[in-house]
UniProtKB/TrEMBL annotation:
Gene Ontology terms: cellular component: endoplasmic reticulum; Golgi apparatus; TRAPP complex
Gene3D superfamilies: 3.30.450.70
Compartments reported by the entry: Endoplasmic reticulum; Golgi apparatus, cis-Golgi network
Name of protein: Trafficking protein particle complex subunit
GO biological process terms held by the UniProt record: endoplasmic reticulum to Golgi vesicle-mediated transport
Pfam families named in the record: Sybindin
Subunit composition and interactions: Part of the multisubunit transport protein particle (TRAPP) complex.
Record family assignment: Belongs to the TRAPP small subunits family. BET5 subfamily.
Organism listed in the record: Pristionchus pacificus
Length: 144
């Protein structure tokens, strides 16, 4: 089991944070193009899930999780900020929703509560980066 990478997008679809740990395959695209493709896929998947929902187009608790043969992605619940997080993991990773909540908590503590950080731009906080690394490396699915 492994945790591959993390994308955090702001409400405008800009990737404001990216981190990878054990990413075994690269896309071969410039990062900016990869970010655009990932965000477009999120929008498409959310739309598809809402259309299939049994509750008038609502996704229970506002979050979406899906699995493929390669990865699992978790998106934090919709918030007024429009923040979207994507965590790619091995499909057999356990406790991924709790891991995403831990990363989100680090975001709230280090970014949201810091009025000096502009979330419309790339996050340059060493404190946040180290907190994310701590949360991920403490998880049972983390592989060095």
């Amino acid at each position: 089991m492994a945790i591959y990478n993390l994308y955090i997008f702001n409400k405008d679809g800009t990737c404001i944070f990216y981190r990878e740990w054990k990413r075994e395959k690269q896309s071969g695209l410039p990062r900016s193009e990869e970010y655009k493709l990932m965000f477009g896929m999120l929008i498409s998947l959310r739309s598809f899930a809402e259309r299939l929902s049994t509750k008038d187009g609502e996704i229970p608790d506002g979050s979406l999780c899906y699995a493929t043969t390669y990865s699992e992605q978790d998106i934090v619940p919709r918030s007024p900020t429009g923040l979207k997080m994507v965590l790619n993991t091995d499909p057999n990773a356990n406790g991924v929703p709790d891991l995403v909540r831990g990363i989100y908590q680090a975001y709230v503590e280090c970014i949201t509560k810091n009025c000096l950080i502009d979330v419309s731009k790339e996050i340059q906080s060493d404190l946040f980066s180290s907190r994310v690394d701590q949360v991920v490396s403490a998880h049972s699915s983390y592989v060095h």
